[in-house]
């Protein structure tokens, strides 16, 4: 599980601040966060940027998994 807004900033372990990510996606999201954190935007802006980044990565991952599953079904047929 990945904290959308780092735990050290909010102490928030609620389900709305957590999202499952694979290791590769987690690394990419962490890189984005470090870039955002470097300019020190207000917390609501930080939250929006990270939320969009994480959900974009999640969407790509889900699309890849769905495509892979369809390819496997076609190969089995």
Automatic annotation (TrEMBL):
Keyword Nuclease belongs to the record: yes
Organismal lineage: Bacteria, Pseudomonadati, Pseudomonadota, Alphaproteobacteria, Hyphomicrobiales
GO-annotated molecular function: endonuclease activity; nucleic acid binding; zinc ion binding
Pfam (any one): HNH
InterPro entries, per the entry: HNH, HNH_nuc
Keywords: Endonuclease, Hydrolase, Nuclease
Domain HNH: 1-29
Name of the protein described by the UniProt record: HNH endonuclease
């Amino acid at each position: 599980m990945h904290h959308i807004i780092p735990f050290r900033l909010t102490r928030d372990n609620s389900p709305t601040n957590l999202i499952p990510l694979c290791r590769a996606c987690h690394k990419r999201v962490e890189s984005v966060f470090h870039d955002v954190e470097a300019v020190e935007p207000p917390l609501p802006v930080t939250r929006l940027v990270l939320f969009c980044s994480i959900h974009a990565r999640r969407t790509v991952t889900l699309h890849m998994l769905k495509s892979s599953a369809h390819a496997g079904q076609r190969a089995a047929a």
